[in-house]
Amino acid sequence: MSSKSRSKEVAPPPLEKIGDLVFSPGTDLPFGKKIRIGLSEQMIYESAVEKGYRTGIRAHLAFLADHENMTPIPLDDKQFTMVIKHLLPSDLSPFDQGLWRSYFIVGWMCVYLGLEIDDEEEEDEEGEAEDL
């Protein structure tokens, strides 16, 4: 590998710490989830990974609804690039943009494979069960 290609690589973000929890904000999960630190619950912000994954699922489901089609479809690279160009958040670093793009594709393909999980619906059902 040449030294030129190494200089173009984007370094991952540094590790961060909340309480005693050390994590990588760009890659570790469960971002967007509540965790208990000491006596209080904290919300860890959502990473580019989760945002891309959830956007991929929502975009595919919206695509199916818009086209009144129940059969999920895969896209090729050119089609993904066209869709992602319109949805990719502009405030992300180049490293996070790469993560977002990758996990957008994962989310889209999870719908195609029938593997998508809507965390928000699960949380709503759990909350209703606790209320009973």
Would you mind describing this structure in some detail?
With 132 residues, this protein is mainly alpha-helical. The chain folds into two domains: 11-43, no CATH class; 48-118, no CATH class. It is 52% helix and 11% strand. The protein has five helices and four strands; from the N terminus they run H-E-E-E-E-H-H-H-H. A two-stranded antiparallel sheet has the order 1-2. Strands 3-4 form a two-stranded antiparallel sheet. Helix 2 (48-66) packs across helix 4. The longest helix is centred in the last third of the chain and has 20 residues, at 94-113. The termini are far apart.
Key descriptive features of the protein:
132 residues; mainly alpha; two-stranded antiparallel sheet; two-stranded antiparallel ribbon; 5 helices; globular
Strand content: 5-15%
The tally of beta strands, per DSSP, is: 4
Amino-to-carboxy terminus distance? 61 Å
Q: N-to-C SSE series? A: HEEEEHHHH
Strand order of the largest sheet: 1-2
Helical amount among residues, as a percent range? 40-55%
In short:
With 132 residues, this protein is mainly alpha-helical.
Write the layout of secondary structure elements.
Layout: H1 3-8, E1 16-18, E2 21-23, E3 34-37, E4 40-43, H2 48-66, H3 77-87, H4 94-113, H5 119-131
Antiparallel strand pairs: 1-2, 3-4
